[in-house]
Amino acid sequence: MESYKSLFSPDLLKGKVAFITGGSRGGMLKEIARGYLLHGAKGVVLMSRNAEKNGEVAKDLSQYGQCLSEPGDVRKPEDCKRAVANTIKALGQIDILVNGAAGNFLASASALSINGFRTVQEIDTLGTFNVSQAVYNGYMKEHGGVIINISATLHWSGSALQVHSAAAKAAIDSMTKTLAVEWGPNKVRVVGIIPGGIEGTEGFARLSDANAMNDKEKANAAFKDGTQSNKATMEQLGKKTVALQRWGSIYDIANTALYLASPIASYVTGTNVLVDGGAVLLYPNM
Ligand code: HXC
C-alpha cells in the first residue's frame, strides 16, 4: 500500500461523498474507499452487515480521511434507507455509490440448496437494487451522481459451479442498463466494473479452492487462508489464462473506480468496464 503512487490528480473527487457496500472484508472495496479518500473525497461511508469488521475497516481508513461505518444488511430495504439517511445527516450528500456487497462459493447446480441459491440472489441482486433505490430516492434523484456496480464475466459463458452467482451478476448487468436509462435524465450515471482474477480478494480465495466445492466450512477456510494455499497452482495457471500474464491487483480495480466516479467518465453510462488483463480472450473452448 505504501508504495502505491497515484496516477490521478489528488483532487479528482474533491468534496464528493461515496457510499460503498461490502467493504468489511478488505480487498478491492476497501482499496476503492482508500483511493477515493486519497483523491479528495470529503467522506466515505461503508455499509456491511458485520458491524465489528465494518467498524474496524472504517477506523483504519480514517487515517486517509473521513470514513464512517454504517452497519446494515443490503438484503433489508429498511437497513439501506436508514444507512442512507444517516449518511446524508452526517455528510450532507452521496455523490458516488459502489454496490460491492456480494456472496459466492463453488457449488454444483445439482447439490446447491435452494436457500444457497436464494441467499446469493438476495445479497447480489436484491442488495444492489435496494441500495441503489435508497440512494437515488434519498439523494441522487435531486442532485445526480454515479452508481458503480461490481459485476463479473461468469454469465458471459456457462461458468460451471456458479449457477447462483452467474445468474445474479447477469441480473446486475441488466439493472445497470435499465437504471442508466431511467435515471439518466436526473444526471445519474450507472456503470459497472467487471474484475478478472484479482489477488488479495475474498472472491479470488474462495473460487480458486476447488476443494471447497459445496462445502461451507472449506469455503470460509479458503478465504481465511487468503490465496496462500493455492498460490503455486494459481500462479502457474495465471500465466496461461491471462493475456497480460498476471493476476490483477486491487489497485487496478481502485483506479478504474476512480476513473468511473470522476468527471473524466462524464459521458459513460449503462455499460461495464472489463478489467481482466485479457482473460476472457483466452477462455478455453471445450
Ligand atoms: C454450498 C453453501 C456454501 C458453500 C453457504 N451455503 N456456503 N452451499 N457451498 N460453500 C449455503 C448454506 O448451506 C445455506 O443454505 C445458504 O447457503 C446460506 O448460507 P448462510 O451461511 O446462512 O448465509 P450467510 O451467512 O448470509 O452467508 C452468505 C454467503 C457467504 C454468500 C453464503 O459465503 C458470505 O457471506 N459471503 C460473503 C463474502 C463473499 O462471498 N465474497 C465473495 C464475493 S466474490 P441451507 O440450505 O443450508 O440453509 C464474487 C465474485 C464473483 O462475488 C466473480 C468471480 C470471478
TrEMBL record:
Q: Which family does it belong to?
A: Belongs to the short-chain dehydrogenases/reductases (SDR) family.
Keyword list, A-Z: NADP, Oxidoreductase
Q: Which GO terms describe its cellular component?
A: peroxisome
Reactions catalysed, semicolon-separated, are: a (2E,4Z)-dienoyl-CoA + NADPH + H(+) = a 4,5-saturated-(3E)-enoyl-CoA + NADP(+); a (2E,4E)-dienoyl-CoA + NADPH + H(+) = a 4,5-saturated-(3E)-enoyl-CoA + NADP(+)
The protein's enzyme class: oxidoreductase
Q: Which InterPro entries match?
A: DECR2-like, NAD(P)-bd_dom_sf, SDR_fam
Question: What Pfam family is a match for this entry?
Answer: adh_short_C2
Q: What SUPFAM superfamilies does the record point to?
A: NAD(P)-binding Rossmann-fold domains (SSF51735)
Q: What Enzyme Commission number(s) does the record list for this chain?
A: 1.3.1.124
Give the superkingdom in one word: Eukaryota
What protein name does the entry list?
A: 2,4-dienoyl-CoA reductase [(3E)-enoyl-CoA-producing]
Biological process (GO), any one: fatty acid catabolic process
Name a GO molecular-function annotation: 2,4-dienoyl-CoA reductase (NADPH) activity
